[in-house]
Amino acid sequence: MKKVKKEVVKPRVILGGSSRSDLKKEALRWAKEAKRESQLWRKYFAMSK
Amino acid sequence: MTRFAYLFILLAVLVPWLQKERVFRILDRILEAPSYKRVIKPTLIAFPSAAILCYQIPLIKTHLPQFIWTWLEKHVILLAGIYLLLPIFVGLEDFIREKARIYSDILPPDGQSLLLKALDYPVLKKMDRFLSALRPSKLNKFQSAGDIFREITQPDRQLAEIIRSIHNFFEALAALQNMPDANFRTVLFKMARKIPVESWCCFPESELPVQGIIYDKTCLASHAVKRKKMIIIEDIKKEKKSMRSRVSRYCESEEGSALCYPIECRHINTIPLAIRIVSDKPFFKSSAKNLYEEILERFKYRILIEYGLSQLKNYTREKGC
Questions:
Q1: Residue among A12, A19, A26 whose CB faces B198 most closely
Q2: What stretches of chain B adopt beta strand conformation (E)?
Q3: Helix B109-132 to helix B145-152 angle, to the nearest 10 degrees?
């Protein structure tokens, strides 16, 4: 069966460097950094108690 | 036998009751209470071993009232029971915590750090643009104040950076909630007459939205704008089967969960934009609606500033200013 190609809509802005793997990598880095930062905050609050 | 019957009836009543989200949140609050953590739990864990230890040391045994030992000797099975119940109890505790986390509508500390990061990200991009304009190679090229203004303010692009940041925020939040495999698709629609008329930007940029969704009155964005409220679809597959499906027929391959947030501008009394985020896993929960609203509201102000700037730029271009 012939595969029908779906028409897609081109967005107004294309930033570039935003493929799925790029975004995933960036998000995982954010998650890691957020975890580390929240640990630092916890330590800070524990010290100031 | 009658006791077992009572226990059975009690369980039959408790099990459906326990499935309620509120109960898990209450139980989680109890487990997190300092009195439970510092007094009740250690006492429960230490009780069987401490009882045996005291029983074996004559000095302690003689100093404690006799009725304790008489009671313990009579109910020695209780000690064995507590030993047996401890691992079950710990497992139950983990289960309650796990469930409560799913139902939680509070952003955990990791999430709060993540939100700050996500809010910073577009600001850093803007800062880069502003400060790059100070480079002598660029400064020499500027002919007028208008040139500088056009170079440093690129609202269309900045708006896309904010949406990218929102996309990353949810991807990272999923990773923090032990769902690193969840894949998200985020689209910002420009709305007019309560229907999407343009895709402003989408992430990942390699997965563009289908053409049919533009001008589709039945799509999720249209529904959210008509209701002027955020819509959360916990199960897209189930939603598609329903008679009043709010998922566009053009999104046939989509599954998982979705969220659509209309961005209202009260100053001009319209909803010019709508964000649609789809996760291929059951990530979005109706119970966390307030939380999502709180998060997206932070971005909403920033989005509206860029949108306003974009519109003003278009206006000045049209007027030839």
A1: A12
A2: 184-192, 195-203, 231-233, 257-265, 270-279
A3: 150
What's the rounded Cα separation, in Å, for the pair B203 and B201?
Answer: 7
Q: What distances in angstroms separate CA B239 from CA B103, B137, B209, B248, B293, one per listed residue? A: 21, 56, 19, 10, 22
**Type of residue numbered B150:** R
Q: How far apart are CA B194 and CA B117, in angstroms?
A: 32
CATH number for the region B109-319 comes to 3.30.450.40
| Domain map (residue ranges) of chain B | 2-103, 109-319
Most confident of B43-47, B130-134, B229-233: B229-233
Which of B117, B180, B213 is closest, CB to CB, to A28? B180
- Of A43-47, B3-7, B270-274, the one with minimum mean pLDDT is B3-7
ipTM: 0.88
B28 and B96 Cβ atoms separated by less than 8 Å: yes
Comparing CA positions, the residue from B238, B158, B242, B265 lying closest to residue B201 is B158
- pTM recorded for the entire structure: 0.74
Interface touch A13/B157, C-beta < 8 Å? yes
How far apart, in whole angstroms, are the C-alpha atoms of residue A31 and residue B172? 5
Secondary structure letter of residue B104 according to DSSP: -
